[in-house]
Specification:
Elements: H1 2-18, E1 20-21, E2 33-40, E3 55-59, E4 61-70, E5 78-81, E6 88-93, E7 101-102, E8 117-123, E9 129-138, E10 150-154, E11 164-165, H2 172-175, E12 185-186, H3 188-192, E13 193-201, E14 207-215, E15 221-231, E16 235-241, E17 244-245
Parallel strand pairs: 1-17, 2-3, 4-6
Antiparallel strand pairs: 2-16, 4-15, 5-6, 7-14, 8-12, 8-16, 9-11, 9-15, 10-13, 13-14
Amino acid sequence: MKRTIAILLCIVMLIAMSGIVMAATGAPTGSHYSLNIIGVQNAKTATMDDSSGHVIFVPISGKSQILLTEAPEGESFQVLDANATDGSANFQLPKPGLDPYLVGGDMTGVDTISDYSVFVRPLGKPGGWSTITTCAELLDSTFAGLLPGDLLKILNRAGAFGGYASVEQVGQEITMRTKGKTQFVNVTAQLLTIVFKVEVLLPDGTTSIEYIRVPIFDDMLQGEYWEYDNNNLKLLQVRFYPVGTDVSEADLLLD
């Protein structure tokens, strides 16, 4: 019994030292970058591209586009255009430090631990919610040789503003503003990667459905953005922490 307890304590210590976020809910402590996505009734008319502030305005109802821009070397998180009510906002963030991979494939040497983690929680008047889906154009239909056969069809829906939408999303179950205190949820996989669902012709002549997880700013993607579909949510608080998350844990939720 004592030996079992000692082993468990060692595992807990190793997890703590690694900085890897294991829990799905509850944000870490420590320094972080905060972004507030605010739903508004009336479109903003002021110019909001002065790269200041931690706010992005979106329509209180309907879809809007938050373009994602890769941070130049030496730079980090920054709002480049805060107004998504006039077409699209623009948010700068670093590369997540992840490798693309075939879900269920050979994971030897594949980096699935992000350089930072993303957490969200809904605030404001109870009753609203939103969905966020990461989208992008696909430049390499071979997926850099990750497929186990020949691509027959990409099964992802089209993004509202072009490209493909990930089959994952930050959904109502996470962003619904209920009464009382809300809790942060880890959405690193959903916001920093795109999961492609594809039909593949295998070498034996049969077909299979496969999933490919591709991080934003990978060479096989361009035009990355978040499709923000608001349903009367007044405020979504987004936090970025300098700790890692194993995005492959989200693979268990893929159908």
